[in-house]
Amino acid sequence: MQSFWNERYAAPEYAYGKAPNVFLASRLPDFPAGRILFPAEGEGRNAVFAARLGWEAHAFDYSESARMKALQLAQEQGVQLQYAVADVRELDYEPAAFDAIAIIFAHFPSSFRAHCHQVWDRLLKPGGVLLLEAFSKDHLSYNADGKAGGPREADLLYDAAELEAAFGHYDILESRQVETELSEGLYHNGLSSVVQFVARKPVNGPAFGQ
Questions:
Q1: In angstroms, rounded to a whole number, what is the distance separating the alpha carbons of residues 186 and 180?
Q2: First to last CA, the chain
Q3: What stretches of the chain show up as alpha helix (H) in DSSP?
């Protein structure tokens, strides 16, 4: 998969455009700017948007091509972006390092997703916010021709109820599955089914998963 993404991001065009994800753009301004992390950020469109709002934006992806495009976009738009080439297992951020974590169309196998959730919780400050948009398990029926984009395997898709259970001790601000018309670059186009999730980590509460 690393070679697949390196090849996709090596093209001169921005695979998913330069504009931020619409859901992120609508929700991120609701929260005071601080330090934010974008996992599997690709070519940087969302992290650059956050930096333009005054956030200290950090991102990672395992594609070197993605990092090059992201830094190019940040320079083009006159902002700073900290971008690491790594996967989730290689992160060296300090615990409670971020005021927000934004996971935008970052899909992981169900066998690995619980570990990712633990990582996000460890890196998020008490009182910090988790924002997520991803394709839902119903998306396969929307993506028969492949134009809408996203994984073609059900195991990589999300379910709102599963997220609510995983982050059950968080203050859930938004959790829903909706239809949306995507228009994001070359690969996210057309009517899609997505999960949108926003939750705040409690200042005091049980350990994650308890």
A1: 17
A2: 33
A3: 2-10, 22-27, 45-52, 64-76, 110-123, 160-166
pTM metric for this prediction = 0.95
What are the pLDDT digits (tens) for 165-194?
999 999 999 999 999 999 999 999 999 999
In the numeric block, which tokens belong to residue 9? 């991001």
Indicate the DSSP class of residue 151.
Answer: -
Separation between Cα atoms, residue 137 and residue 152, nearest integer Å: 10
> Candidates 1.10.540.10, 3.40.50.150, 3.20.20.220, 3.40.190.10; correct CATH number of 2-200?
3.40.50.150
Separation of alpha carbons 200 and 42, rounded Å: 25
Q: What are the domain boundaries of the chain?
A: 2-200
